[in-house]
Predict the 3D structure of the following.
Amino acid sequence: MKPWHVEIFGGPVFLGDCSTVIGTPDRKVRFTVWPVWLGSGKIEIGRCCLICPGTRIMSATSVTLGEGCMTAQNVSISDADWHDLYDRSLPVGNTKAVTIGNNVWIGDSSIVCKGVTIGDNAIIGAGSIVVKDIPANAIAAGNPATVIKYLDPAKPMKTRTQWLSDPAKLAADFEVIDRAIMKGNTLTGWFRSLLFPRKGD
């Protein structure tokens, strides 16, 4: 959605089928693979993922997101320091791959640092800074992010991958939502909103 607000620098960048990337004028999505002249770095995003406005993914080695992952607004994922601690002229510094499992949800304004592995179904709370591995089915938050509890294995879970697996049902669901949102819209109301816009149009 709004592909002109998605910036890709370098490559390779892979985006799985049925994934959604949403960019906005004030919160562009940025995928950066660098240094390109060394041919290192890659970004791989699995099927059915949701990448929200302001997300930045930067790779000098490898950043991988599994299927059905969600990044909220302003998430930053990086596999490198981007400068050496003592020699600031070095272009990458320390780098180590980031691996994010399937169905992971990363909350608003969180930062995932180099060398981190996040297990399947994990949830990262808003504003967290992830500097060490988070196990599967864990809910983690804070700076640095620590596990605060685990998901209840007895409760059923529906993933984005499952939700998007039936296109006909999905289209029907969106039709119901669209009709509910547009209920009460009229042609004259549309003309009025063009000629005499008011708050809420």
Q: What stands out?
A: The chain has a mean pLDDT of 93. The helical segments are 160-163, 167-181, 187-195.
